[in-house]
Amino acid sequence: MGVPDPIELRLIDKIKQVKLIQKRLKYALEAQKTEDWEWLHLRALELERECQEQVQLLQVTGRIHEKIRAFRKKVLSSAKSGRSVQKLQERVTQLECDLDRFLSYGRMFKSPSSERSSERSSEEETVIADRTSTSSAITEHLSWKSSEWASQKERKSFLITCQVIGGVEEQISECALQDHRLSSHQNPRQVFPADPSVWRRTSIHFTHIQPGLVVQPTLFNQNPDTFYRMKQSKDFKLQKPRLHQYYPLDQYSSLLRQTFFTIDQRYKILDPQKDPQKWKRLKEFSEQLLTAPRELDQVDAAKALGYLNCKNDFVLSALYKTLQENQVLSIRYETVKALTRLGCITAAVVKEITFYLTHGAMELLMDILIALKTTLQRNQGVSLEDEPSLTNTLIQLVTTREHLDDVSLEAAICLAHLATSNEVALSILLSYLKDTDMKKRMQALSTLVLCMRIHDVVTIQAAIDQLSHSKMYKHRMDASYLLTSIGLQQIRQEGMERKVYDLLRKALFNDPVMAVRKAVALAAESLQMKKLIYDAVEKQLEEQNEVTRTQAVMTLNILGVRSQRILRLLLEMLDLDKSKEVRIQIIRLISALRLKDPRIIRKLKLKEQGEGSLAREAAKALKSLQRIDRAKSL
């Protein structure tokens, strides 16, 4: 019986260790089927990852061991010269060192849980068998987490090495193995001269560019001087700084008004020359709708044709042909919905819609009503074929409902778009203004104001309530636009001017969302209240109350600075005001309005040299202004 190979013994121990980890993973997965513990789920994930790493390590070490055995056979059976045998022996020694290094890596990156294998395995089996957990057990089982993260970076680099070496057998070459140098405490044999890492106390960190988020200009993050606008205006550098640059609302006005209550993209006719791939895909959907053997494929094709919003002739022809010839209810329903979305509400389509509205279930009713509402909003004022039949069906649907629900609301909105003076739709929508659901209230209010042109005390008060109490910022933005649509004259006739003025003035500094404050500023400008707000705010800057001065500066942050006198007053307050919060808000105003006067820059640099929150805000403002200058130079 020969002497056992120590390398083979170490590999056998490694295999036993992998089997033990697999056994623990099996126990954890079985326990997860009956118990939903967070620590158990994390434990299973960690065991799975550790098992994969150890298996990968075994693959690499196994291939190296095969090469060692092959070289040993060559040494024993070699009839070559002494120099060739010496080279083979050196190669075997080198491979043994590499194998020892990889096995040492495996010990170094072993999780704390596997080091206490005997204690933890018995304890873990007991917990799984009992299916019970306490706070102390959870704390104990999660203790491996913190220590595991300590060597996460080293583990990651080691696994990358294993993947490179173990991916293809040819990659295990002399160069690939010699590139992986060891530190002094891991090196199995002493090498002269010693590696410089022996004396180096700190590890070398290679600098790399950290990935970051690129903020694209959208509705909510556009600044008065965005990079894209400066790039388009070639004469921007030649212009002298004027006072109108301090007004931040001009670039928001058209953009905000285009986004309020906008409907999805309009119908289009796809050109095969401009977009052949999409046109080909559209053609495939049309053929699939007519010739597909499976019902599910035809349903999917009809859905796709409805959502693509392409009114090519072959698309409409396929949909109409399916509606005439196909008698499968699911296919007919999706075809009717697709034609409704495309705006092709003919007499046959109206007949099918009437049937579904009369005999359909709740989900089917909501689906067809939403498609009908979208089409009616797109084609506002366009008469439909057999419109009286559809109107009567909607009235019957609304009046027969026992209580107000989503179906009643959607039907009332469709009815309002079909007939703006319909009394049934008006009464239903007015009743929804008292609903506790703010979303339903907003849908009813927007239909009353924009579609039915109901501009009275009820709708004005409802818009004020939405702007004051709605938790969704989009609803507050829409409410400010609804006040603009109602107009100052109608608000003044109803005696609500002072109430609207106080609300807008408060929302300019009190609303937490910048986009809402911008929308409120646009509403104040449209309702001719901006000058009154300016006069009141400029008086607030000279008051003794700290909170009042802070609110005034925050309001000017949105409205802008309209005169050089106010700008000089703000700079004086930056130096002399007793309140730190007021001075911080002034620095934020300078950053938001992009005030790049040399005097202002000098003041910010002086503030940056100090300490505390004021110095940090000044540093942020200077960085923001420097980014704008760099964008101009491009």
Fraction of residues in H or I helices: 55-70%
Structural class: mainly alpha
The strand count comes to 0
End-to-end distance: 79 Å
From the alpha carbons, calculate the radius of gyration and give it in angstroms.
Answer: 37 Å
Low-pLDDT stretches: 107-188, 206-228, 234-264
What portion of the residues fall into strands of 2 or more residues?
under 5%
Shape: flat
Oligomer: single chain
Mean pLDDT reading: 75
Biggest sheet overview = none
H/I helix tally = 32
Write the layout of secondary structure elements.
Blueprint: H1 6-32, H2 38-76, H3 82-108, H4 112-115, H5 117-130, H6 135-141, H7 143-149, H8 152-167, H9 174-178, H10 227-232, H11 250-259, H12 276-291, H13 295-307, H14 313-325, H15 329-341, H16 347-359, H17 362-378, H18 387-399, H19 406-418, H20 423-432, H21 438-451, H22 457-469, H23 473-486, H24 488-493, H25 497-510, H26 514-526, H27 530-540, H28 546-559, H29 564-576, H30 580-593, H31 598-608, H32 613-633
Briefly characterize the structure.
With 634 residues, this protein is mostly helical. The chain is built from 32 helices and no strands. The model is unreliable at 107-188, 206-228 and 234-264 (pLDDT under 50).
